[in-house]
Amino acid sequence: MLxxxxxxxxxxxxxxxxxxxxxxxxxxxxxxxxHSEEIxxxxxxxxxxxxxxxxLGLMMGFYVSEQVELAVVITSCLATALALGMSGISSAxxxxxxxxxxxxxxxxxxxxxxxxxxxxxxAAMLIPWLVALVNGMAPLIFALIIISPLWMARSGLVLxxxxxxxxxxxAISIIFLLGAFLGRVGGTFWxxxxxxxxxxxxxxxxxxxxxx
Length: 212
Hints:
Layout: H1 2-10, H2 15-21, H3 24-34, H4 37-65, H5 70-111, H6 119-146, H7 148-154, H8 163-186, H9 190-211
């Protein structure tokens, strides 16, 4: 079915080759007509923030528990990151696919014609997958960056500070950067936006410390 949708872009060649033949310009066209660039940017930042904050909270829980092996922390963080990634992919695809189908049907009703072979139809098919991948990969990528000090310590590399506090520092730094980015996108002062994000992270850490 997917090859049929992509056929006009690739002269009905096999599906794997069709994906290669979809040029950046064609992809840009699909993103433009579906207004998806902003959506993907928002998903990347929001779900990335959720992932970084979840990993930070998990590590804080291990930190206050004490006497937890590094391997257990790494495995738990990886499992959480994978779960967030899968959740992000599935939830975003289901919601975006439904919204795109609904928008395409409304457009067809307005134009009183079928748009099966149009860019709008191809966008309705491809964009949900792109949005889902962005939504799912964001927490996974940030989680891998955050737990990198744990990997380095486990491999025998000597770090300037303990691995767990260092990884938590990386998480807070990423949260600040995401907040600052949102500030720039929204036209507000980036530093203030970044500090607000750090305040959320520190509040989370403080609450976990109190219940620990």
